[in-house]
Amino acid sequence: MAPRKRPETQKTPEVVLRPKSKRNRSPRELEPEAKKLCLKGPGSSRRSDSGCLWAGLASLRVPAPCSSIIRALHHYKLGRTSWPSLQQGLQQSFLHTLASYRIFQKAAPFDRRATSLAWHPTHPRILAVGSKGGDILLWNFGIKDKPTFIKGIGAGGSITGLKFNPLNANQFFTSSMEGTTRLQDFKGNTLRVFASSGTCNIWFCSLDVSVRSRVVVTGDNVGHVILLNLDGKELWNLRMHKKKVTHVALNPCCDWFLATASVDQTVKIWDLRQVRGKSSFLYSLPHRHPVNAALFSPDGARLLTTDQKSEIRVYSASQWDCPPSLISHPHRHFQHLTPIKATWHPRYNLIVVGRYPDPNFKSCTPHELRTIDVFDGSSGKMMYQLYDPESSGIMSLNEFNLMGDTLASVMGYHILIWSQEEAGMRK
Fold first, then answer.
1. What is the CATH number of the domain that holds 123?
2. Contact 166/122 with Cβ under 8 angstroms?
3. What is the mean pLDDT of residues 271-288?
4. Which of 106, 178, 237, 336 has its CA at a distance of 20 to 30 angstroms from the CA of residue 415?
């Protein structure tokens, strides 16, 4: 069955760019209508408006570093400081800067909630976001020009996976409920269809791309995983899980290493060179609940998983089958909420995840805030919580750009850009 014709690319009909002053902002100014794209200027968190709700975050403020980064680098160069100690110092310095992070840009271009996001691999201010209606926003928030808006098919077109093409930064891959995994350009043209189900009962839920191995991997809602080369040739198509494959991830350092997550409550690790069938996995990691995501760390040595209830796990490559580091965290699944997925910071051993307060969670407190939580990847200790009282919804997706200095969040149909307050004022 031939893939459905994609609607033509459009420019977003209206963009409002307004620098904000700290004194004149009101909560309604940060709540644009769903069908408009409103870009807001720098703002503050106005802690006085939150009263006692902010008191719970005060204890998580990171103390100032005891010595300067320049001194730490100098000591490392002289051999007086080990590399792990230097990394820890740099991480503490970064955590200290989170106190100055604010939402300085906000957009609401979709009429349905946002479902996926991806940072550009070479430009730290370009972001792609997909929606439940199949719309895609290509947003360079560093310039005043209107973002590019690619119209989707509407109902049934949800973008479930989004990746820029590592070989051509003006192209991107998508998987969708439309039943295809495809390569598109910034004008919305379909360059190649890698997989097509040919039926409305089967759709694709996840994808990843390897530039070294030149392969595309995609998973569907009935447990199949398909591996293709970048020319579109199918290498294999196997049922690797009993139910929907919610996430596929290739190891950034050993890209023949594949992790697949599923609602069948397992995460499996595969060697692409040795896949022969559904039982040829290297490891099967059972979970107590369905799993939303499985992501390798930037150094490829650890695996981060997010279930659909209250657990974040960190597995180590040295012993995959040993009990993992387990972080208790409320992020339960809700049908009309984009599934919450924890991510790694690209430069530090930090985990970033949105909080969905649960009254049944053992540590839940009255009036608990819907924060973005930052955990240490080794100890599992909470290091910081980001919160803006004017954008207090559930942050389902949160991801830092490759520079590690700007955070993009998805909150319903809103897209939020966090950065240091002084940096945000200059942009």
1. 2.130.10.10
2. no
3. 92
4. 178
Q: What is the DSSP letter of 420?
A: E
Q: Nearest CA to 311 among 287, 334, 295, 336?
A: 287
Indicate the length of the chain as a whole number: 427
Residue 4, in any domain of the structure = no
3-state secondary structure of 3: coil
Closest CA to 257 of 238, 225, 228, 281: 281
Dihedral of CA 220/309/339/346: which sign? negative
Q: Which residues pair with 79 in a beta bridge?
A: none
Residue 131's nearest CA partner among 107, 164, 98, 103 is 107
- Domain boundaries, position 273: 9-23+36-426
Q: Give CA 203 to chain center in angstroms.
A: 21
Listed range (114-118, 265-269, 356-360) with the worst mean pLDDT = 356-360
Q: Is residue 259 within 8 Å of residue 267, measured between CB atoms?
A: yes
- The answer to whether position 3 is within a domain reads no
Going by their DSSP bridges, the two strands 407-411 and 414-420 should be labelled as antiparallel
Residue 190 contacts residue 183 (beta carbons within 8 Å): yes
Asked whether residue 31 is assigned to any structural domain, the reply reads: no
pLDDT reported for residue 49 = 37
Residue 221 lies in a domain: yes
Q: How far is CA 113 from the centre of its chain?
A: 15
CA distance 98 to 384: 8
| Beta pairing partners, 303 | 296, 315
Neighbours of 322 (CB within 10 A): 8
Domain count within the chain: 1
Rounded to the nearest integer, the mean pLDDT of the chain is 84
- Which of 247, 116, 136 shows the shortest CA–CA distance to 185? 136
pLDDT in tens, 12-24: 434 333 344 343 3
Task: Give the pLDDT of residue 14.
Answer: 40
What confidence tens digit (pLDDT) does each residue in 37-57 have? 444 443 333 333 333 344 445
**pLDDT tens, position by position, 214-245:** 999 999 999 999 999 999 999 999 999 999 99
Determine the Cα–Cα distance for residues 271 and 197; give it in Å rounded to an integer. 25
- Which helix (H) or strand (E) covers residue 96, if one does? helix 83-97
On the CB side of 91, CA atoms within 13 Å amount to 20
**Per-residue pLDDT at 58 exceeds 50:** no
Please check the confidence at residue 60 and state whether its pLDDT lies above 60.
no
In 73-166, the DSSP E strands lie at 101-107, 114-119, 126-131, 136-140, 148-150, 159-165
β-sheet bridge partners, residue 293: 306
pLDDT of res. 158: 96
